[in-house]
Amino acid sequence: MIDLDFIRVxxxxxxxSVGAARANLDGRIVSIxxxxxxxxxxxxxxxxxxxxxxxxGDVSGCTVECWLHGSRFDLRTGHPLSPPATEPVVVHxxxxxxxxxxxxxxxEN
Length: 109
Ligand code: FES
Prior knowledge:
By secondary structure, this protein is mainly beta. It has a single domain, classed as 3-layer Sandwich (Rieske Iron-sulfur Protein). Helix content is 0%, strand content 42%. The protein has strands spanning 6-11, 19-25, 28-34, 40-44, 58-60, 63-65, 72-74, 91-97, 100-104.
C-alpha cells in the first residue's frame, strides 16, 4: 500500500456548501471542491485550456465548469466532459477526519 503524505487544508465548514475554494499547498495552487452530493474533491486549480482558476467556476453534480469557455471537468477523474478543454486536470487525494479536510498531492505530471 502506498503511504500518501496528507496535508491538513481546512475545516469542512470553511468550504461552501456546494462550490470551490482555492488553496496553496506547498506552492501548488489547488481547488478544494464540495460537490452537490457533499463529497469533497481536490484538483489543480488551473484549467487545462487556459490559465484561469477553476475555483471561480460553477459546481454542479460532481463537476466544475470553467468560467471562461465552459469546459466542464469531472471532479472524480479530472477529465473534461465538454470542449474546448481536451486534457484532464490533475486530481489529488482527499480524506476527511472529523471535520478536517486533508489532501495528498499527486505527483507532478
Ligand atoms: S480557459 Fe477553461 S475552457 Fe477555456
